[in-house]
Amino acid sequence: MELHDSVSLPIVGEAEVLHLASVTSTQDVARSLPIGSIVLADHQTAGRGRLDRRWEAPEGTALLASFVLEPNPLLSLAAGVAAAEACDSRQVRLKWPNDLLLEERKLGGILVEATHDRAVCGIGINLTWSPEGAAMLDQPRDDVFDRLRQKIATWTLARPDQVLARWRDLSATLGRRVRVDVSGAITEGLAEDIGPRGELIVDGVAFVAASVTHL
Ligand code: BT5
To answer: How far is the CA of 134 from the centre of ligand 1 (A)?
Structure first.
């Protein structure tokens, strides 16, 4: 039995979904909502990635959602596992720390913004449009969203060792030579593993927050 088959599905019927036509960012709306809330938008006028980067998607072309969750140190990896499984394609892989890849190209991304008592987990997946050099899934938004709700519920409640094991299964990064950039300080080496807190281990050195390029 594969690991994800052994994780029982909790009830997700109580999660409140707020579906909006246009928002600045689903993260901005979700921030003031209770834990368990989900914000889904057709369009974002100021979608964002990490480090104030932009997240682009013409109206109606992407899955754009934010989940309000309990804080969890492995949330970014758990959400990556959930999103990869929700894509229902064996070709979707995870690039550390927060990218979904399809055939080596970026299909989606995850942005976790946490305070002491809550975490807002934003997920963007390209469906019918992608920027130059990126990928799209070409599946109906509502099908992917329904699976994503289930998978988020499952994987945010899974034990840390289950999350780490499934992330390793789905990883496109482990076993690869990578370039790691920490505020301009560059390291190149073999991505060997992820540690217990989700850190990337490159030639024996653990990186907690960094940008990674597959070489
Ligand atoms: C991410 O950031 O990959 C996290 C993206 C999270 C987006 C979701 S959408 C719902 C929720 N609401 C938000 O406002 N955000 C979340 P990062 O690793 O920093 O990647 C950002 C970079 O990806 C940009 O600088 C571009 O180079 C590239 N990019 C922008 N839009 C893209 C797209 N649609 N597909 C692929 N790459 C894109």
So the answer is: 11
